[in-house]
Amino acid sequence: MSKITPDHLARDAYVYVRQSTHDQVVRNPESRRRQYALRQRAEALGWKNVVVVDDDLGRSGSGVARQGFERLLLAVGSGNAGAVLAIEASRLARNGRDWHTLLEVCGLVGCLLIDEAGVYDPRQMDDRMLLGMKGTFSELELSMLRQRSQEALRLKAQRGDLHTSVAVGYVRASGDRLEMDPDRRVRSALELVFCKFGEFGSARQVAVWLRQECILLPVVNYGPQGRIVVWRLPRYNTVHRILTNPIYSGAYVFGRTTSRIRLEAGRKVVTAAVRRRPEEWDVLIRDHHAGYITWDQYERNQRLIGDNANMKGTAVPGSVRNGGGILAGLLRCGHCGRKLRVQHNGQRGVARYLCVDASINHAQRNKCISFGNMRVDAAVSAEVLRVIAPLGLEAALAAVADSQRSGMERVTQLELALEQARYEATRAGRQYDAVEPENRTVAAELERRWNARLEEVARLEAEIRAAKEREPDNGLSATERTEVMALADDLPRAWNHPAATADLRKRILRAVLVEIVVRAEPGHLRLLLHWKGGDHTVLEVRKSQQGEHRWKTSKDTEQLIQELARLLPDASIASLLNRLGIRSAKRHTWTQLRVRNFRAERSIAIYREGERAERGELILHEAATLLGVSKMTVIRLVKDQLLPARQCCPGSPYVIRREDLEQPAVRRAA
């Protein structure tokens, strides 16, 4: 005890308390009691002021950032610490760098190190050597423990018997085996997730549909009662974890994630749960247990989820997104090999496909290839419909079956939830009946729980009745069934049906096509269609010429306006066209301005007052005035074919030549 001097006692004593993990903090209280008891030992050695540093409870001492250790080093370095107490060297540090840093600082300022075995002065050679050996043994001990545990885990994982946690939908059976959860509601909910992903092809769309239908998914929670399954409205992460976990394909996998270590500000920083590629997994045992899907389905789902990523550049098609370009994600430039981008111009269904490799990688202003979507979309759609036409009847039958099945999916989930709620209500009733009536505090709580379970049963029964009323058992009506079967013989009509959205067309195209390679050639685009089965088809689509667009007025309307322009002013022409139901190329009604612009583009002269008189032509009221009769009389003469007249279209003015009014037959009839 001669090593403890008055100078040491004049300073503070620091007791360092640490346990490596949170589990040790919860389950190993005896070690923590021993460490806190060092406070009494410091007081027994003569220190009046003892500081306990326990900020690092639950933190490893192998080199990760520790606030408590940093605080201890700061106190020692500033000369405030006369002694540092710990039950053993492993509590202070598990790596040589931190341990020898502490020894160096303690030696410089004259601070003692005290454990349960003795008092050490780092300035003395023998104590310094002994402390160094203790730190080395502590680091070696940790390495040996880690190596033994990791090897044991690896051997157990190679047998497929290591289960640190069990995913929802499975339970641990005897002999470390995995079995499907006997709860039918849990199994049905998981099967619904995989079924809907096969239908939608998107994890996000599955999550959105489940939330819209208010269908709950099971989630595993670990608490004081152990492993329990709770039911919640799903989030995207919940659905994504289910779809990407290979356990549901009947496979046992170990080593899906790893840890990465980097140095940051001179400290080791560990990043946990870094995902690894399947070829890097440590253990993969197929057909290890019963699965909800097959391994082939699992691999297909992973490819589809990977292809839906929109931030991986030209490597993947990307997910189905909004916009009119139905070939988005499928087109690839035949000149540079990069994926074509889509540029929407704000109008519904109109887009432009372009490759910007030249401007991005080669600093050229011109684009590699660029073209509008209308002709290409129509040509590829027609080719796909031609190829899948023989499967139309089969698709129609599948649509009828899907309609009948999907209408009852929510009802099925509600019925399973009702079955579980009835069990819980019955169980709560038995608990209430078993309590003694005199024990009012317990009886009141059990009665409240029973009433809550009964209310849940009533709510589910009401939801099931409402769902069955909205979705009748027979699915489609006879008329709807007939219409669906008729669409099987007319796929173009089904493709262009108002209920067929652009997203649906995109998913259909992606179901049959891998990609489309496009090359620009003089006067046309050459498209090479790669089908899912491995076949290829070549299409040639004519390119639009400069100034050519799809907003083109019909020849009949153009000729009619040319003839009316010789008879009527622009405002009268617009009124007549609107009465006849004739629309512009963009399906707009006519106005005086639109008629004037139409004429200007085609160099049609405007009607000039007196123009008909110069040609010797009269209209109805002018002819009636010259004959001295009413307009109806002139119309009767025209219908009786006594007076020649012509009319551009129904509703347009009658054009009568002045010389025809001088015919004797016309005069006598008038």
General description of the model:
The longest helix is centred in the first third of the chain and has 34 residues, at 125-158. The protein is an alpha+beta fold and 670 residues long. It is built from 27 helices and 22 strands. Among the domains are: 6-154, Rossmann fold, CATH 3.40.50.1390; 409-470; 555-607; 613-669, Multidrug-efflux Transporter Regulator, Chain: A, Domain 2, CATH 1.10.1660. It starts with 5 loop residues before the first helix and ends with a helix.
Walk me through the topology:
Elements: H1 6-10, E1 12-19, H2 22-27, H3 29-36, H4 38-44, E2 50-57, H5 67-77, E3 81-85, H6 89-92, H7 96-109, E4 112-114, E5 119-120, H8 125-158, E6 170-173, E7 177-180, H9 184-200, H10 203-212, E8 217-223, E9 226-232, H11 236-244, E10 252-254, E11 257-264, E12 267-275, E13 283-285, H12 295-307, E14 331-333, E15 341-344, E16 351-355, H13 357-361, E17 369-372, H14 373-388, H15 392-406, H16 409-434, H17 440-470, H18 478-488, H19 491-495, H20 502-512, E18 513-521, E19 524-531, E20 536-542, H21 555-564, H22 570-579, H23 592-602, H24 611-615, E21 617-618, H25 620-627, H26 631-639, E22 656-657, H27 664-669
Parallel strand pairs: 1-2, 1-3, 3-4, 14-18
Antiparallel strand pairs: 4-5, 6-7, 8-9, 10-13, 11-12, 15-16, 16-17, 18-19, 19-20, 21-22
Instruction: Provide the CATH superfamily of the domain at 6-154.
Output: Resolvase, N-terminal catalytic domain
Tell me the strand order in the biggest sheet: 2-1-3-4-5
Rg from Cα: 42 Å
Mean pLDDT: 81
What's the main sheet like? Answer: 5 strands, mixed
**What general form does the structure show?**
elongated
C-alpha end-to-end distance? 147 Å
What's the architecture of the domain at 6-154 in CATH terms?
Answer: 3-Layer(aba) Sandwich
The structure class reads: alpha+beta
Unreliable runs: none
Count of extended strands: 22
